[in-house]
Amino acid sequence: MHTQMLTSKHGGELISFKLDGEERIHQGENCKDENGKVYWKRHSPILFPIVGKLKMNRTIIGGRVYEMYQHGFARDMDFEPITKLDNFHSYVLKSNKNTNSKYPYDFELYTTYRLDENKLTTIYRVINTSLVNMPFGIGGHPAFKIDLDELQKGNYYLEFEENEDKIHFLYLVDGLIGIDYAKNIIKDKKIIELDSKTFNNDAIIMKGLTSHKISLKNKASGKTLLTMDFTDFPYLALWSKPNAPFLCIEPWYSTADNVKSTGVFTQKQDIILLKPKETFECKYTVEFF
Known about the structure:
The protein has helices at residues 97-100, 148-152; strands at residues 3-8, 13-19, 22-23, 46-47, 58-61, 64-67, 80-85, 88-94, 107-116, 119-128, 134-136, 139-140, 143-145, 156-160, 168-173, 176-181, 191-193, 204-207, 213-218, 223-229, 235-239, 246-252, 272-274, 279-288. 35% of the residues are buried. Helix content is 3%, strand content 44%. It is mainly β. The strands form 6 sheets. The protein has a 9-stranded antiparallel beta sheet, with no helix packed on it. The protein has a 6-stranded antiparallel beta sheet with strand order 13-22-21-18-15-16, with no helix packed on it. A hairpin with a 2-residue loop joins strand 15 (168-173) and strand 16. It has 2 helices and 24 strands. The termini are close together. It has one domain (3-288): Beta-galactosidase, Chain A, domain 5 (Distorted Sandwich).
């Protein structure tokens, strides 16, 4: 078994993972439809200091209004490389004048990719270097390559490790979380079926999960393509473009503003509050088959 990963300082992003020479990560701008249009330009962006969308793309911090677009700014900034070994890549983004204009806190955001045979662990570490408590959200957005023909045939599905008796699906209204829950699409308490129309109404966002793991499988071949361990993340999102050859499985610590949001950043649901000089760390692991 041979594995290889490639990462970039831009966004501190994973851009390739190959198992025995086969690419398993969506190839961004190099992946185009029959008309030559790029499906989605990213690979596996880091969502920080927000996950999802702010109401009117604005938030209030310390009585001031700040503008920030969906999923935050980290994914569009250059990180500083720290370590680059065959099986261990690490980067850091430190607050600066650019970040302070959008988010008035001092921080260090580390992202590390650790490869152990066919397992890839992504680790996020946030240090509050401010003198005040720092609120933030964080999440992963890895896009896995899938076969378009198999998707169109409806052969792909996701399977949780446990029965999901307490799961809730969040309803999106123009990218914001609605008041009511969306329809529960779980079959047999464990299965989410996928096809070319699954994401016609945007992302699928879940909370109240019992499972710590989810697997992407193909019912025609009977094979498991990958299993993600998202232990401790309170949200799990699924997303793709309609009829596109990739699937994002996204572990999140927080989510978008809801439609009744006050706009005050510290009042966001599930916001993480980090004390000065303290460190927050989370990770998720994907095992490829």
